[in-house]
Automatic annotation (TrEMBL):
Ranges annotated as spanning the membrane: 20-40
InterPro entries tied to this protein: LptD, LptD_2
GO cellular component: cell outer membrane; transporter complex
Record-given protein name: LPS-assembly protein LptD central domain-containing protein
Native organism: Cyclonatronum proteinivorum
């Protein structure tokens, strides 16, 4: 509303705004109001004054006092002191009565219609640019029931029925709103309802807000809500100034990130600061919360910080017997800040640690890209543990972490017979970096001592680890794909044998395959050399193997570790007894391929491969008659070896289609892909090539041939000529499943019965013995719904001697068998679930009606009478959602008649049973049928208590038996507070080989 121009801004039917002189609008409104008043006063005696009153009784201001933290900022704005400009006389624009042609009056309609109709009229707007702090932005307001504007003296507007007032300073919605356009105020108050003494939650809310348990409740549909910058404040009564953006609230609720704040009186001097008197904070979203903090006064700043004075914790309405004089609650927990970690007091169940304090440390927030933490455990026995972590990340570029761990363990007394001192260390580095779209760097370094996890971890998988591995790599790909290049390093360690293998730096490169004789123009017959293609690549590798010597008890004879031996060849020889140290070499490979025929029936491909090996040294062997052993000697000097082989392969595809129908399966297609390959490779162990030597093995003059490149990290030339033919056959079986619904609609689905059934076999014509290889079979299928089956087997065609060792005789020569089984395995896995119904799983389907064999439809004596109470009581839903992952593995391998290795294990992982909405059972089970023993298993029970959660976990098997019980608040902020209070820090119990609370 502009005080200077006396114009009212209205929104037309097409959404445009128009400025109408106030005199033109006030005159017809005044005439019509008087006319209606006279007509209605004759029918409704004494109701004239009530017509213009609000349907909701306006109660006086009830919040009579606010504490002095902030002054009252809702004083009325001084009235406009400027004289109003003269209003120009305008001609009457209303049509005469005789020109209306019987049309209804457009100002007042005799039929108001349904006041609660969903359709809303266009929202009028009031705007002003008054002086002395007047409105400078437009106010828009809507109401579904009625709108009353008073212009006699004070400019007031009253909105009823889903009223809403919008302004850039905020949006106010309520059942009824009063606008004081003179003072720029919006006032909204909830409507009162009759008292319901049976609603205990409502009585509680009125009690905690000090309204009195039997104060008249309010209509929840008319409760005012103020929204500013996405934040909502709900209150019983709101008074808000759109110019100063200040407000008063009576019995208000403010929503924050981690809960709600409720108070009897609230002031908002600025959009970022809120003062609350007699405040209640809780992260429980119930109207009657399970727990809350009640404070005499609270102050909230930017919804990030909550300060309180005179606070007390209530649990199930029971006050905690400690009053906090002042305090601070960070409500926005996703904003990380530096601070102390939460320590805990523990008592170990072993005599090696004693009483201690765990998780004593500090979290440091440097910036959005770097954070770090360090935590320590200290025990009375002198045992000490420290763990430091640094995390860094830059979006779109790199991310990673560095972790260092150290533990020193001691017994309680140095005079103890079992006293020992053990030191364990750990280094873990993870790094992922995208340098550009064609280059990336990754690293995963895990270095630790053997007992680190066993002494310091609660995780079963970590405690069961007997080895560790690390890897770092860099890869680059040419933008046009011309070549690729990569560098990597690897390290692996076996704690059971203390064997360590370190590889690196390794480098590999390859160039894109190209066709040197490719035609520039298409057309004409294709020649064999048109498909000739060439590929080239290479690899450089270095390797360090550390296998320490052991005594008769299996213990290493030296205290030298692999890291010391890596940088000292003398220590390496002392610890391992080997003469070599770090080995490295380079290999190059080139392949020439040509597609000789490309007909639709047969493909013929010829290949030629060339390999070259470069090494800095070779091996020489000599026989020592004094020790009767063959000794190795390293011959320094560059050496190269070259090998080659050729192959010719034939492959095709054969399709077989059957129109047979079995049940719902119609038509079957069998696809066979046979392949035959001829391979030739000369015998590189002959003297012609110079890659092999002879050495005596005993005093009798027996000799054997060896390769001088047998220590090569990338291999070397092989012994024996190859003139082999290889056969392979791949099979796929498919079908079409056809189903019809009750209406006869046909639905089809293609289904693979056999995904893969492969067989492979080879025969080497140049071999002196065992020319025929084993027959290898592999099978995979998903024919059973949700069950994946994989199987494999190997068959040998040679007979055995009395010890079970294969001899160079075919088995069918002395028996009726064609082959003997040497190995097979089967693996089946599935994920099952059910029991849902309303909770999401499959429901029980009714089966067909069952009738006795000699059923007589006219003889009803076999049936009982109708129960009059049948179906009168609701049937409870006993369906329970559950899910599980099952995996069964069985393997068998023949070594000899006295040694046959078998394994049969059934694992049931991630078993979950949702008994009710609040109770859940979870477990992981495993059983070894060969050992007849349970594998490490876990059992757990979870209980959802709305804003609380209770869990119990138990592992009764294996070497790591423990149980863990915890009862905690779901909100992490409140949980930290509870754990810091005496009496609430014992809501978690643990029993393990390491410690308990």
């Amino acid at each position: 509303m502009k005080a200077a121009s006396h114009q009212l801004i209205l929104r037309t039917a097409n959404g445009n705004r128009s400025a109408v002189p106030a005199a033109l609008l006030f005159l017809p409104l005044t005439v019509l109001s008087v006319l209606l008043f006279v007509l209605w006063s004759g029918s409704w005696s004494g109701s004239g004054n009530a017509l213009m009153a609000s349907p909701h009784e306006r109660a006086p201001e009830t919040a009579s006092r606010f504490w002095a933290l902030a002054p009252d900022t809702t004083e009325a704005v001084p009235a406009d002191t400027l004289p109003a400009p003269p209003v120009p006389a305008l001609p009457d624009t209303l049509l005469p009565a005789e020109s209306t042609d019987g049309r209804p009056d457009s100002v007042i309609s005799p039929d108001f219609g349904d006041p609660f109709s969903p359709a809303e009229s266009p929202a009028p707007q009031a705007a002003g640019a008054g002086q002395n702090g007047g409105l400078t932005d437009a106010i828009s307001f809507t109401a579904r029931d009625s709108l009353i504007i008073r212009l006699d003296g004070q400019r007031m507007a009253e909105l009823f029925g889903n009223a809403r007032v919008s302004h850039p300073a905020g949006q106010l919605s309520a059942g009824a709103i009063t606008l004081d356009l003179e003072n720029n105020l919006a006032i909204a108050e909830a409507r009162r309802l009759p008292i319901d003494t049976t609603d205990t939650s409502a009585l509680f809310r009125r009690w905690i807000t000090r309204q009195g348990p039997f104060a008249a409740p309010v209509d929840t549909l008319s409760i005012p809500t103020l929204t500013r910058e996405g934040d909502e404040i709900t209150s019983r009564r709101i008074m808000f100034n759109f110019v100063t953006e200040q407000g008063k609230f009576d019995v208000a609720r403010v929503g924050i990130d981690q809960g709600t704040l409720t108070g009897t009186a609230v002031k908002a001097p600025t959009p970022h600061v809120v003062f609350i008197e007699d405040a209640i904070f809780s992260s429980c979203d119930l109207d009657h919360p399970h727990y809350y903090i009640r404070a005499r006064r609270m102050k909230m700043v930017d919804e990030e910080e909550v300060f309180f004075v005179g606070a007390q914790l209530y649990l199930l309405d029971i006050p905690y017997p400690v009053i906090f004089p002042f305090g601070y609650l960070p409500s926005r927990l996703q904003q990380r800040r530096s601070g102390l970690l939460e320590p805990s007091l523990v008592l170990q169940d072993q005599s090696t640690r004693g009483l201690g304090i765990e998780n004593v440390g500090w979290f440091q927030y440097f910036n959005d890209y770097l954070t770090g933490s360090i935590r320590t455990n200290v025990y009375t026995s002198g045992t000490f543990f420290a763990d430091g972590t640094a995390n860094y990340a830059l979006r779109g570029s790199y991310s990673g972490s560095v972790r260092l761990g150290y533990s020193r363990e001691r017994g309680l007394e140095s005079t103890d017979p079992d006293f020992s001192r053990t030191i364990n260390r750990r280094l873990e580095i993870n790094h992922q970096q995208t340098i550009n779209p064609f280059a990336n760097l990754s690293a995963n370094i895990n270095l630790r001592t053997a007992d680190y996890f066993r002494r310091n971890s609660y995780d079963i998988s970590e405690r069961a680890e007997t080895s560790t591995s690390s890897r770092a790599s860099f890869n680059f790909r040419h933008p046009e794909g011309l070549y690729t290049f990569g560098v990597s390093m690897q390290q692996s360690q076996n704690f059971a044998t203390n064997q360590v293998q370190f590889q690196g730096p390794n480098a590999n490169y390859s160039f894109r395959r190209f066709n040197p004789f490719e035609r520039r123009r298409s057309g004409g017959d294709q020649r064999w050399y048109d498909t000739l293609s060439l590929s080239y690549g290479g690899q450089f590798s270095s390797r360090f193997n550390f296998t320490p010597l052991r005594d008769g008890q299996g213990e290493p004879i030296s205290d030298i570790n692999w890291f010391e031996a890596l940088f000292s060849p003398s220590k390496f020889r002392e610890a391992t007894g080997e003469i070599g140290h770090v080995r490295y070499g380079l290999t190059q490979r080139a392949e020439l391929t040509s597609q000789l025929t490309t007909s639709e029936f047969l493909n013929v491909t010829a290949r030629g491969r060339l390999n070259e090996f470069w090494y800095p040294d070779t091996v020489r062997k000599t026989f020592n008659p004094e020790t009767n052993q063959v000794e190795d000697r390293i011959e320094q000097g560059f050496a190269a070896a070259r090998t080659f082989n050729t192959s010719l392969s034939f492959n095709t595809a054969i399709f077989g289609i059957s129109e047979a129908r079995i049940g719902s399966f119609e038509r079957f297609r069998h696809t066979m892909r046979p392949s035959v390959t001829f391979t030739y490779q000369p015998d590189f162990s002959s003297d012609f090539w110079g890659y092999f030597r002879e050495v005596e093995t005993d005093t009798l003059g027996n000799t054997r041939r060896y390769s001088i490149f047998e220590r090569g990290v990338l291999g070397g030339p092989g012994a024996g000529e190859q003139r082999a033919i290889s056969f392979s056959l791949a099979n796929v079986l498919e079908t079409k499943q056809v189903r019809r619904d009750s209406l006869g609609e046909r639905s089809e689905r293609n289904l693979r019965l056999v995904d893969n059934l492969n067989a492979s076999l080879s025969y080497n014509f140049a071999a002196e013995q065992f020319r025929l290889s084993e027959l290898n079979l592999t099978f995979s299928s998903n024919i059973l719904q949700n069950i994946r089956i994989n199987a494999g087997a190997s068959f040998n065609f040679y007979a055995q001697d009395s010890l079970g060792i294969a001899i160079n005789e075919y088995i069918w020569e002395n028996s009726g068998r064609v082959a003997r089984l040497t190995r097979y395995n089967i693996n089946a896995s599935t994920t099952v679930s059910g029991g849902g119904g309303a909770r999401g799983g499959p429901s029980i389907r009714p089966g067909p009606m069952y009738y006795p064999r000699f059923y007589d439809a006219f003889d009803q004596t076999m049936f009982r009478g109708i129960d009059p109470g049948f179906n009168q009581e609701p049937v409870p839903d006993f369906r329970v959602p559950w899910s599980a992952s099952l995996r069964f593995t069985y393997s068998w391998r023949f070594v000899n008649f006295n040694n046959q290795v078998r394994s049969a294990v059934l694992n049931a992982d991630n078993i979950m049973i949702q008994l009710t909405d609040g109770w859940r059972i979870r477990t992981s089970l495993g059983y070894d049928f060969i050992q007849r023993d349970l594998t490490p298993s876990r059992f757990g029970v979870d209980r959802n208590l709305h804003c609380w959660s209770m869990s119990f976990e138990w592992n009764p098997f294996g070497d790591f038996k423990f149980f863990l019980f915890s009862l905690r608040v779901n909100d992490s902020q409140m949980r930290s507070l509870f754990q810091a209070l005496p009496g609430f820090d014992r809501l978690e119990r643990r029993n393990s080989p390491i410690g308990r609370r």
